[in-house]
Amino acid sequence: MNSIRSNRFHHYSFLACLIVSINPLPTAQAADLSDKHAEVILRKADAIRFPQKSFETNVTITTRTAEGNDETFKYRILSRGNEKTLVITTDPPSDRGQIMLMSGRDLWIYMPNISQPIRLPLSQRLTGQVANGDLARANFTGDYHPKLLRTETIGKQDYYVLELTAVDRSVTYHRVLYWVNRSNSRPYKAEFYTLSGRLIKSCFYQDFAPMAGEVRPTQLIMKDALHRGEQSILEYRNLTVRKLPDKYFTKDYLKKLQQ
């Protein structure tokens, strides 16, 4: 009897090992499919935020302090996705003529009274809660590895929650949590974190309206997580798809824009 039980035990153990040995792939495949799903979600949300072709838009940034004081800057943006972007300051008059040129992840600022451009990091603050990369880079895709963490219900809407991890240190933020509407792929909220894991600010995508063939967020509210009551409001207007030739992103063309 003991011999029979022993044989049965070895038989079942063999079957268990066999099952494990022939089924290691589903878990890896599931993870791979999950990553691909996260990439699809991110790309759809990017396509709603901005056209994936070349475009031009005007942005007004109003920064409000905790004391209620406002400061306003205006920019004209010419962008070819995440490859090339011009950020042209149009207001206030004292800063007019300053132009940021992004090529790949390299960013320079050209100033009328300085002969040589100055290299800038994407993560450097531009004004208020807005970093250079917030204007210069149109998409999250390509800058971050997306992972689908969970789904959440807020109000009556269901959202995917993505974790975006920087592909390297040259991008604007180390880590981003990103809420995307499950039914229409519209971005809802983003939280931005430092390398140490500290939340530095939150962004809310609001006032969706038709622009350039898609219903897009026309207002972004960035709230400082470290200083309560401080926020920057970005308002996008006159977003149009247009062809932008290579010559637009050259030093000679920038000189014409500064004249």
Task: Describe this protein's structure.
It is a single chain. 23% of the residues lie in helices and 45% in strands. Strands 6-5-4-3-2-1-15-14-13-12-11-10-9 form a 13-stranded antiparallel sheet. The model is unreliable at 1-25 (pLDDT under 50). With 259 residues, the chain is of the alpha+beta class. The protein has a single domain, classed as Lipoprotein localisation LolA/LolB/LppX (outer membrane lipoprotein receptor (LolB), chain A, Clam), CATH 2.50.20.
List unreliable stretches of 5+ residues.
Answer: 1-25
> Could you report the average pLDDT, rounded to the nearest whole number?
87
The main sheet orders its strands as 6-5-4-3-2-1-15-14-13-12-11-10-9
- The total number of structural domains is 1
From the 3D coordinates, which CATH architecture would you assign?
Answer: Clam
CATH class: Mainly Beta
State the helix count. Answer: 4
Give the SSE string.
HHEEEEEEEEHEEEEEEEH
Number of distinct beta strands: 15
The percentage helix is 10-25%
- The CATH superfamily name is Lipoprotein localisation LolA/LolB/LppX
Structural class: alpha+beta
Please state the CA-atom Rg, rounded to the nearest Å.
24 Å
Strand content: over 45%
The CATH topology comes to outer membrane lipoprotein receptor (LolB), chain A
- Structural shape: globular
Describe the main β-sheet briefly. 13 strands, antiparallel
Topology:
Elements: H1 2-22, H2 25-49, E1 55-64, E2 70-80, E3 84-91, E4 99-103, E5 106-110, E6 118-120, E7 125-127, E8 130-131, H3 132-136, E9 144-154, E10 157-166, E11 175-181, E12 187-193, E13 199-211, E14 214-224, E15 231-241, H4 251-258
Antiparallel strand pairs: 1-2, 1-15, 2-3, 3-4, 4-5, 5-6, 7-8, 9-10, 10-11, 11-12, 12-13, 13-14, 14-15
